[in-house]
Amino acid sequence: MSRLTHVASGPYAPPAAPRELTAVSADGSRLHVEVHGPERAPAVVLAHGWTCSTAFWAAQIRDLAADHRVIAYDQRGHGRTPAGPACGTDELADDLEAVLGATLAPGERAVIAGHSMGGMTVMAASSRPAFRAHAAAVLLCSTGSSRLVAESTVVPIREGRARTWLTRRILGSRAPLGPVTPLARRILKYGTMGPASSPEMVEACARIVHACPRTVRHAWSHVLDLLDLDHGVRELRVPAEIVVGAADRLTPPVHARSLAAALPHCLGVTELPGIGHMTPVEAPDLVTGKIRALVAAHVTTPHHHVVPAEESA
Fold first, then answer.
1. Can you tell me whether residue 308 is helix, strand or coil?
2. C-alpha to C-alpha distance for 272 and 1, rounded to whole angstroms
3. At 83, is the secondary structure helix, strand, or coil?
4. 76, 27 in Cβ contact below 8 A?
5. Count of other CB atoms within 10 angstroms of residue 244
6. SS3 category, 143
7. Bridge-partner residues for 242, per DSSP?
8. For the CA atoms of 248, 194, 277, 22, what is the dihedral angle to 10 degrees?
9. DSSP reduced 3-state for 158
10. C-alpha span between 291 and 60 (Å, rounded)
């Protein structure tokens, strides 16, 4: 019944960040940013999804930080980043630009991995100057660009107006999630994870999701309901790879196939049998391996990183 914001032990416990800093977005929002790994190593930027936090990437950070500079940040209203005055796709793009500007040297390129709303962040930022200056390649995990509510299979009935109406009410609920109980774990596993997900995976995701304030969860649910980033997909000109779980109910594989068809430089789609929406947690080695391969193929000689103006111990 604890209100822990993440698990405290095991492979999904987030490692302590050697460096933390604040990136300031266009509207003054202050974003919590963590930097792991060697300072001169090739850079990876991780953008988490709706109701999550940097802790969601624990497995990737732990592995990649051995020989990469791993930059992870909390989306506004999530984790240690306060809610901003507004939330929308423009703000997602602003925030990613702020993080890139605060952590990467001029001309330095990184692989950017986005899960769910983090992938949508990448699409929203695709035409932005800072994104184009710093993105070498991207990994899109369990995400989509439009029709999220209509295509969701969380409600197990035939596609149509009734399913869309029910899905909208569920995903946009104002109800508090409450403590992490056995029932709460079962509900979260059904909605967001594959049937073979281990208890450790479910517990890690439940702690993170239940820590998201309900006002933040509700506000961003409207953004996702109205999402239309199809234009952003067409502007995403860097090499892009897609990972999706075949059992994903929130962003089912139809989205991955649509993205692949629209992306200017799609490297391929990996569809994972039995895996749900939480691919970085459910298939950590595969997701980490995809990021490593993108860095090896697309990131050249690393640069010295910028020391931001607002860095804390």
1. coil
2. 32
3. coil
4. no
5. 28
6. coil
7. 140, 269
8. 180
9. coil
10. 9
Instruction: Please say whether the beta carbons of 204 and 9 come within 8 A.
Output: no
Start-to-end CA distance of the chain, whole Å, equals 32
**Where do the DSSP E strands lie in the chain?**
19-24, 30-36, 43-47, 69-73, 110-115, 135-141, 240-245, 266-272, 311-312
Cα separation of 122 and 142, whole Å? Answer: 13
* Type of residue numbered 184: A
Cα 261 to Cα 240: distance, rounded to the nearest angstrom = 12
**Placement of tokens 């969701």 in the chain:** 152
- Those residues whose C-beta lies under 8 Å from the C-beta of residue 136, and which sit 6 or more positions away, are 109, 110, 111, 238, 239, 294, 295, 298, 299, 300
For residue 115, the one-letter residue type is: H
Q: Going residue by residue through the chain (313 aa), what tens digit of pLDDT does each one get? A: 235 789 988 889 999 999 999 999 999 999 999 999 999 999 999 999 999 999 999 999 999 999 999 999 999 999 999 999 999 999 999 999 999 999 999 999 999 999 999 999 999 999 999 999 999 999 999 999 999 999 898 888 888 889 888 888 888 888 888 899 999 999 999 999 999 899 999 999 999 999 999 999 999 999 999 999 999 999 999 999 999 999 999 999 999 999 999 999 999 999 999 999 999 999 999 999 999 999 999 998 555 444 444 554 3
* DSSP annotation of 45: E
